[in-house]
Fold this sequence. Notes:
This protein is mainly α. It has helices spanning 2-5, 11-30, 40-46, 53-68, 71-92, 94-97, 108-117, 119-124, 136-142, 149-157, 161-183, 188-205. α5 (71-92) packs across α7. The radius of gyration is 22 Å and the shape is globular.
Amino acid sequence: MAELSYPDHTPEIRMEIARLTCFLLHVDDLGKEFSSLENLQLNILLGDSTEGAFNEAFRKHLIGFYQFYDPIPANAITLSAMDCINGMLLEQRDAIRDIKLSDSARSWPNYLRNKTGCSEAYAFMLFPKAIKLDLKFYKEYLGGERDTYVFLRARIADKPLNETLRDVVSESLAAHARVSKALQHTCAISTWKQFVNGYLGFHFTLARYRLSELGF
């Protein structure tokens, strides 16, 4: 992976990438055999090196990325790697493997794949400190507050802004309906409804969103 996908990186950086790949493959194959992995993030936050050689080696490896990458990309790499391990452990749980899927859970495969793919880390690893991108024009263009989700979608799809907004509303309502259907016969449905009501209430009542100007 490191040699084929990052051929122009220095040997030291390619070694870091190769080691990360080895760590992740090791967890993917043998994760269930390492009970200490479930505490990996906690050990890193506490600086605890007593719970397994793997955890300590992985922690030191993640620190090494800050030598080759600027802080924000290095943050993204380390967070993505830790989340990937968490996703692999989640995927390997018997309760998850035996879960009964319904046709309403369309986003579940994408969610699980995103959790276990570590794609963000491999994307940020494309740009070590030695490689700088000229984003000045892009930054100036986005300075007009046209970088919001709806604006970007409208631009990409070449659609009017109001039509794009209607699409987003329709997709949000459809997603809510799918989740509600998937949970309707479980005890989690009440938790989901509480979250939705609280989320809507937060946005409707907070002055910064100015929804009162629309009559809400």
